[in-house]
Amino acid sequence: MDDQRNNKVAIYGSRRQDPYFRELDGLFSFLESKGFRVYVHTKLAGYLEEHSVDTGYAVPVEKIPAGTGLVISIGGDGTFLRAARWVGEREIPILGVNTGHLGFLSGCGIKEVNEMIDSICDGNVAVERRMVLGVHTGDRIRDFWQYALNEVAVLKDDSSSMISVETRINGHYLADYRADGMIVSTPTGSTAYNMSAGGPLIEPTIDCMVISPIAPHMLTLRPVVVGGDSELELTVEGRAGSFRMSLDDRSYRIPMGGKVTIRRAPFSTLLLRKKDSNFATVLRDKLLWGANSI
């Protein structure tokens, strides 16, 4: 981390931290003892104040202050995705502190956070640069943030009729996917919706995208891995008047016949991990990879 930015930390978190108030109380005092200037998102600040958690001299903010060198996300993977959106295009490293379920994006648990902060101060952490997808659609969408860290999905907006997704890669026709929908995933998102739809798991720093149909109507349509510099064009048709487009945890309704263009965003999300952390360990710890089912 840049020494000139090293003393500002911004904290984002879910408002479901009831079992961890003691640890959170200690976190704020620990950060101040290390000389950090601490800022906390206003919604989290209000929640902690309501539950008498001592945040010390932390300043409530809506936006991350200029010169911030570290963002801490406290919660699960959904919280991390929202923290990444909070950071946006600024490429500030994010430490995920897991108080949720699986925590694929977390760098440590709540019990280890002080030790992890010491490692950050010593420069003894790994910074992983994660691909972000950028989306363009010809439709004007209110409150639309066009980027996704995990995946972009086009989905039917009707409970019965499937959709048809004409798919082109760099302008070249691939196929018409007749299915309940399609997922375009980053390597980071390969263990999320993509995995549930039967897509491959990808080591998260590999430069690629994954195209995975959801309940395809044809046996010949299966997940495809394409290069990270690819441009995908999806044109969606169906009987309903609209389809759903989701970007991570955000969903929008798009008129049927609309075109969705997906390409690499001009920035990355920077994720902090322990130096000895690796993809194999994450698979074993989070998914019980190779565990004996008997």
List keywords for this structure.
6 helices; disordered N terminus; 37% strand; 20 strands; 294 residues; 6-stranded parallel β-sheet; 6-stranded antiparallel β-sheet; single chain; alpha+beta
How would you sum up this structure, described in words?
- With 294 residues, this protein is α+β, with helices and mostly antiparallel strands.
- Strands 3-2-1-4-5-6 form a 6-stranded parallel β-sheet, with helices on both faces.
- It is elongated, with a radius of gyration of 20 Å.
- The protein is built from 6 helices and 20 strands.
- It has helices at 21-33, 42-50, 77-87, 113-121, 193-196, 279-287; strands at 8-13, 37-41, 59-61, 70-75, 94-98, 108-109, 125-130, 133-137, 147-148, 151-156, 163-169, 172-179, 181-185, 208-214, 224-227, 232-238, 242-247, 250-255, 259-264, 269-274.
User: What is the number of helices?
Assistant: 6
Order of helices and strands: EHEHEEHEEHEEEEEEEHEEEEEEEH
> What's the oligomerization state?
single chain
Describe the strand arrangement of the main beta sheet, using strand numbers.
3-2-1-4-5-6
The major β-sheet equals: 6 strands, parallel
Mean pLDDT: 92
Strand content: 35-45%
Helix content: 10-25%
Structural class: alpha+beta
End-to-end separation in angstroms reads: 46 Å
Given as residue ranges, the uncertain stretches (5+ residues, pLDDT < 50) are: 1-5
Record field, number of beta strands: 20
Evaluate the radius of gyration. Answer: 20 Å
* Principal-axis shape: elongated
